[in-house]
Amino acid sequence: MTHEMTGTLITFEGIDGSGKTTQARDVLDVLIQRGHPAMLSREPGATPLGGVVRNLLLSEDLTIGSMAELFLFLADRSEHVEQVLRPRLSTGQIVLVDRFTDATTAYQGYGMNHPLETLESLHRMILGEIVPTKTYLLDISPEKALERVRSRAEKKNRIEERGLAFFSRVREGYLEIARKNPQRICILDATLPREEISRRILKDLAKFLPSLPDRGKEERRTLA
Predict the structure, then answer these.
(1) Where does the signal sequence lie (predicted)?
(2) Which CATH architecture has domain 8-205?
(3) Does 65 show up as a binding residue in the annotation?
(4) What is the residue extent of each domain of the chain?
(5) Is 19 annotated as a binding residue?
(6) Residue (of 42, 111, 41) closest to 70 by Cα position
(7) Mean pLDDT, the chain, whole residue set
(8) What is the 3-state secondary structure (H, E, C) of the chain?
(9) Does 26 belong to an annotated binding site?
(10) 163 assigned ligand-binding residue
(11) pLDDT given for residue 160 in this prediction
């Protein structure tokens, strides 16, 4: 069954350590404060299956081949689209997503050398009519990003440990995707102060989101 997509899909992208998750949360808070029907989701991990997939992908106790890894990400995305994105977008909500299709193209395509045309075909099959209205790419050098990752208190996951060369390929992949999609993707300097990045994102969002009165801060709704 086809649903008319009346909502707005906004995605946040960037290599590990870019600060995209922080920005997605900050923007969500402002949208809710201003009365917008907004929510935050993520990939992988926004559905029951996605939670299992996320744990598998981040586990250091498993050796997962690159092809199996790719299809785990795609299985997560398929469930995410059907269980979360399509229903929410069909009711007019603004959905912010921490990582989406560009992440797979950058990480599995440019980073792991899977054929880009194959990824594009699989994404067309999974997404149907769902396309992000806007994507915010938090750009940062791999050196600086890995420095941030290593400063975190928590233990690094399997993907974060792939090293500088891998993340350099992923970053270049993201920038190439942005060059091919200049209307959709807005590149932001991830080394700027947190508040300045948020200000720039909100200024850009104002171009296509209606301005609603501030109704006071509501409880944040997230899928985690």
Answers:
(1) none
(2) 3-Layer(aba) Sandwich (3.40)
(3) no
(4) 8-205
(5) yes
(6) 111
(7) 90
(8) CCCCCCCEEEEEECCCCCCHHHHHHHHHHHHHHCCCCEEEEECCCCCHHHHHHHHHHHCCCCCCCHHHHHHHHHHHHHHHHHHHHHHHHHCCCEEEEECCHHHHHHHHHHHCCCCHHHHHHHHHHHHCCCCCCEEEEEECCHHHHHHHHHHCCCCCCCCHHHCHHHHHHHHHHHHHHHHHCCCCEEEEECCCCHHHHHHHHHHHHCCCCCCCCCCCCCCCCECC
(9) no
(10) no
(11) 65
Written as six digits, the tokens of 172 are 């270049």
21 is in an annotated binding site: yes
Would you say 7 is a known binding-site residue? no
Question: Residue 22 annotated as binding?
Answer: no
In angstroms, rounded to a whole number, what is the distance separating the alpha carbons of residues 201 and 43? 21
Torsion of CA 23, 44, 42, 92, to 10 degrees: 150
Q: Residues 187, 175: contact at Cβ < 8 Å?
A: yes
Confidence of residue 149 (pLDDT cuts 50, 70, 90): confident
Joined together, the tokens standing for residue 165 give: 């060369």
Say if residue 2 carries a ligand binding annotation: no
Question: What is the distance between the alpha carbons of residues 109 and 193, in angstroms, rounded to a whole number?
Answer: 30
pTM for the model stands at 0.90
